[in-house]
Amino acid sequence: MSWLTNYVKPKLQKVLNPRETPDNLWHKCKSCGQMIFQKEFIANQYVCAHCDHHDRVPPTNRFDALFDNQVYDLIDLPSVKVDPLKFKDTKRYSERLKAARAKTGDEDAIKVAVGKIGGVETVVAIQNFFFMGGSMGMAVGDGIIAGARHALKIEAPFVMFTASGGARMQEGILSLMQMPRTTVAVQMLRDAGIPYVVVLTDPTSGGVSASYAMLGDVQIAEPGAMIAFSGPRVIEQTIREKLPDGFQRAEYLHEHGMVDMVVHRHEMKDQLGTVLGLLMGGRHTRRAAE
Fold first, then answer.
1. Do 192 and 150 form a contact (C-beta atoms < 8 A)?
2. Element (H, E) at 198
């Protein structure tokens, strides 16, 4: 009986019931609804080949697309106290953190690395929207400060990729305190003459847009990125008026002088390399020669 159940039955089931298509084989575009082969979607830097919609990108994929020859070193970030307020809603905050870490493989919603972009040694910080919506808590604040300090130490420009729904409510006032803390870190860079470039990706909102996200020496945005403090629905309900088409999108902000340029993801590396080279004024080439 064991031979029949353990060997014959599975073989028959395999023939009669062929394996279903894996769930992660295809990606459905959020903009046009077209189905895209997942491997092609990732190879295209998470940009839809049909409508050019820029989807959200995990930090590792972003680093690989930015740094020369995909060579970079991650910077160790300081650890922070887990669940300092013992917060609980429908779940404990500690449980939400544990689930987010298991899902993404990251400790929190930010990663910082150093490498060369267009030959310019650069410190890059990237917020991970897949980790609790990229929300800004103590770990994100400390990560940005650590990145800024490393940029000061090696005299390299600091590039910040934002992707966040705002401050992390589970950390209360401690998350809001990251707004002035990161603002001070940006000012430290400015006082030292170190360039600070911000790349706004979809979405950038809340306390993030009200602090370090809008303080760059150069403000770059990805096409179609939603950049705002409050969402359009909240504003419409408040002012009881219909907002213009494309309001709070990257192109609208560019037309109204809120961002300096809107750059396609495929051109981001080259554009950043050009901007950083101009801002550094040849300092990186002199240091390399020395």
1. no
2. strand 196-204
Domain boundaries, the chain: 1-55, 56-289
Residues 133, 261 contacting (CB under 8 angstroms) = no
- Domain 56-289 annotated CATH 3.40.50.150: no
- Answer yes or no: are the C-beta atoms of 178 and 141 closer than 8 Å: yes
Sheet containing 261-262: give its strands across.
Answer: 72-74, 110-117, 120-127, 158-164, 196-204, 218-221, 261-262
Closest to 93 measured CA to CA, from 18, 169, 156? 169
Q: Which two tokens stand for residue 259?
A: 């961002």
Q: How confident is the model at residue 191 (pLDDT cuts 50, 70, 90)?
A: very high
Rounded Cα distance, 136 and 108, in Å:
10
Q: Answer yes or no: is pLDDT of 6 > 70.
A: no
DSSP state of 244: P
- 3-state SS string for 61-112: HHHHHHCHHHCEEECCCCCCCCCCCCCECCCEHHHHHHHHHHHHCCCCCEEE
Q: How confident is the model at residue 15 (pLDDT cuts 50, 70, 90)?
A: low
Which of 259, 196, 194, 197 lies closest to 223, judged by CA?
259
